[in-house]
Design a protein that fits this description.
With about 300 residues, this protein is mostly helical. Helix content is about 85%, strand content about 0%.
Length: about 300
């Protein structure tokens, strides 16, 4: 990028972050009022809290960060996301199922655009942080497909899935893609990794394959079969955690890259630890209803 296009690109990225901040206000206001029992929100409003977070400000901020990292800003894509994501969030607050299905389908097209864009951007300079973002946003893509199909299913009173698909959608959107992208951004800022070191490839491969395996199991397999898959998932996630700890944590712990990035590194382990504990509880009981719901909320947050 020349200096002028770089300035224009960073202006676009900054605007994406501003829209993300506006959506964050929606997330945090509903979350705090609900958590403090100050306001009794209905289910549509709670879903607004969830989707203005994971799909809303978090995803918009992560796409903006990806454009910043790759230095490959697509202003049309940024504008499209900046318009469609707030509309989709508003559809949840409104509670209109056809509006959710229609706006979700339009947003899904934009998310497919994101997936194509990120792989093209990565092909220019194939680095490990870039691959982490590409795999993470690909996970975001298939998680979004499931989510929109759920909305179409509810709007049309049809049965696309043979069983409840919310678990498969949530595992991709709330955890799998976020951990991949978080590790990629931390790797970029902490290590500045160039190329594709083998240990890093194993780390990312384990995370991506494990997340995909868990989503497929929750979508299509019985509870007993999902228990077995959960054991495999625990194993591959532990491999990824150990590799991330060995490769990234020593540099992060020295504090030369700033306290916020160091804290982010810690919270990667906190998030993974809570989620793996949830999976282990499910494997032990075989009944999702027996898992403490407060743990599920802690993992989400």
């Amino acid at each position: 990028m020349n200096s002028m296009s770089r300035v224009d690109g960073m202006t676009t990225v900054a605007r994406m972050f501003l829209v993300a901040m506006a959506l964050f206000l929606i997330t945090i206001v509903i979350g705090i009022l609900n958590g403090a029992d100050a306001v009794k929100f209905n289910n549509d409003q709670i879903l607004t809290h969830v989707h203005s977070g994971t799909l809303g400000w978090i995803s918009l901020a992560l796409v903006a960060a990806a454009m910043w990292m790759f230095e490959a800003v697509d202003r049309r894509l940024a504008l499209t996301l900046g318009i469609l994501i707030p509309i989709y969030v508003a559809a949840f607050y409104w509670g209109n199922l056809p509006a959710r299905a229609i706006s979700g389908t339009a947003l899904l097209v934009a998310i497919a655009w994101v997936v194509v864009w990120v792989w093209r951007a990565w092909s220019v300079e194939r680095t490990l942080p870039g691959l982490s973002l590409a795999l993470g946003l690909t996970t975001f893509g298939y998680g979004a497909v499931i989510g929109v199909l759920i909305q179409i299913e509810r709007a049309t009173d049809s049965h696309i899935f043979n069983q409840d698909a919310v678990g498969g959608h949530a595992s991709a959107m709330v955890f799998s893609y976020l951990i991949l992208v978080a590790m990629g951004l931390i790797e970029w800022r902490v290590l500045g990794t160039k190329g594709l070191p083998k240990a890093g490839l194993v780390q990312l491969g384990a995370l991506f394959a494990g997340g995909l395996l868990l989503t497929v199991a929750l979508l299509f397999l019985s509870a007993e079969a999902t228990q077995a898959v959960g054991g495999i998932y625990l194993l591959v996630e532990l491999i990824a955690i150990v590799l991330f700890a060995v490769r990234v944590v020593p540099t992060a712990a020295r504090g030369s890259i700033g306290r916020y990035l160091a804290a982010s590194t810690v919270f990667v382990f906190v998030a993974i630890g809570i989620f793996l504990y949830l999976i282990s509880l499910f494997i032990a009981s075989g009944d999702p209803e027996s898992v403490n719901f407060n743990l599920i909320k802690a993992s989400d947050h």
